[in-house]
Predict the 3D structure of the following.
Amino acid sequence: EVQLVESGGGLVKPGGSLRLSCAASGFTLSSYTMNWVRQAPGKGLEWVSSISSNSYYIYYADSVKGRFTISRDNARNSLFLQINSLRVEDTAVYYCARDSTFAGVIVGFDYWGQGTLVTVSS
Amino acid sequence: DIQMTQSPSSLSASVGDRVTITCRASQGIRNDLNWYQQKPGQAPKRLIYAASSLQSGVPARFSGSGSGTEFTLTISSLQPEDFATYYCLQHNSYPRTFGQGTKVEIK
């Protein structure tokens, strides 16, 4: 069974840092592009970042570029998001999500974790 | 960046109603579109991929159509468990973008 479990969220002051983790099980992490998506309280979904299976391709939303760093450790079946210079508007539930493929074609995010809440407040 | 315009933002419907939600892309995205359902306190759940392919385990009352810039999610006969918020996602290019969401409420 595919499982994604996020951790590392919490309450942090503006300007602070956190490192989010996503533990993957039930599939071979090294075969998949992985993603972070966030959702501010009462708001919609916002894509944050993606990393290819071998970490060669990395993409960020403009809203986080220069402050967030995505990484992965395939040997440890883990995905990470280092978030620095946190702002109040970064308050959100952060989800990790797996990119799926069908017949070799990318078909978007299939499995999602349950999310970890990051609260930025003084 | 590709903008996804989803409509309506909310709707009220009764059990048994046919419901249609639309997503319009600001430029052509072939069929690189997914539909998700999200209930309060839960992660999104994929319903449709490749614009019209039903995710395994999802009831057949859900269907998707469209290609290029215009896409539709249809629920043929709304059930009590379908009251939720629905989102489209384009994965044709980066940045990935979601529609604003459609909240389906009980009439």
User: Anything to note?
Assistant: DSSP finds no helices and eleven strands in chain B.
